[in-house]
Amino acid sequence: MKILIIEDEIELLIAISNYLVRENYICELAESFKKADEKLSIYEYDIILLDISLPDGNGLELLKTIKRQHIKSGVIIISAKNSLDDKISGLDLGADDYMTKPFQLSELNSRIKAVLRRRQFDGTSTLNFNEIAINTDSKTVTVNGLEITITKKEYDLLLFFIVNKNRVLTKEAIAEHLWNDNIDMADNFDFIYTHLNNIRKKIKQAGGTDYVKTIYGMGYKFTEI
């Protein structure tokens, strides 16, 4: 799962990022309105943590952009403002949740999981696709009820495929999701094939079906068809 943290307090920005990285999220950081706007125009995120008070703009304007452009990310506002008007404005504009500083990072993590469950997993912590089940709380994968050993990248890749089932995912989209903007440093996309091949083997060894289809010249699709 990939998170964009928009927060101008650098110490808090780093603290949130460090905590969420330990919780196995991929995090990108933006300390200003301009940088956040640039990232939102290029990359996709599962969750956006949005501060209202930024040094060069209002976070609510970013929220308007997110909704106007039909960006599907979940949005949690994090702000020092405890004004009822700000909270109502943010929720009315389409934010999924609102947290007032200071807050416990463990609570923030719980709020993130709740938003993900509501938006992507029909309110549950388990995502099922036939014989494959992914528990997004324990970050485990079972095939026919048997838990398989899987690396973090393999877990992220499988989850990305199932959340986007029946959609063609380009190699560029997969790489950017797993490695964020650091992917520009990569020479090629061979690592995608390596992780994908490992996932296929592990699912087959557990008696599962290989649902990943190669769409030549385009990318991959996770589908029964």
Give a quick summary of the entry.
The chain has eight helices and 14 strands.
Protein model, in words:
- The protein is elongated, with a radius of gyration of 18 Å.
- The model has no long low-confidence stretch (mean pLDDT 88).
- The chain is of the alpha/beta class.
- It is built from 8 helices and 14 strands.
- The protein folds into 2 domains: 2-120, 3-Layer(aba) Sandwich (Rossmann fold), CATH 3.40.50.2300; 126-222, Winged helix-like DNA-binding domain superfamily/Winged helix DNA-binding domain (Arc Repressor Mutant, subunit A).
- The longest helix has 16 residues, at 105-120.
Radius of gyration: 18 Å
Task: Give the helix/strand class.
Answer: alpha/beta
Low-confidence stretches: none
Task: Tell me about the largest β-sheet.
Answer: 5 strands, parallel
Number of strands: 14
Question: Which key features would you list for this structure?
Answer:
225 residues, alpha/beta, Rossmann fold, Arc Repressor Mutant, subunit A, five-stranded parallel β-sheet, four-stranded antiparallel β-sheet, 14 strands, 24% strand
Task: Break the fold down into its secondary structure elements and pairings.
Elements: E1 2-6, H1 10-22, E2 26-30, H2 33-42, E3 47-50, E4 53-54, E5 57-58, H3 59-68, E6 74-79, H4 84-92, E7 97-100, H5 105-120, E8 126-129, E9 132-135, E10 140-143, E11 146-148, H6 152-163, E12 168-170, H7 171-179, H8 190-205, E13 212-215, E14 219-222
Parallel strand pairs: 1-2, 1-3, 3-6, 6-7
Antiparallel strand pairs: 4-5, 8-9, 9-10, 10-11, 12-14, 13-14
Helix pairs in contact: 6-8
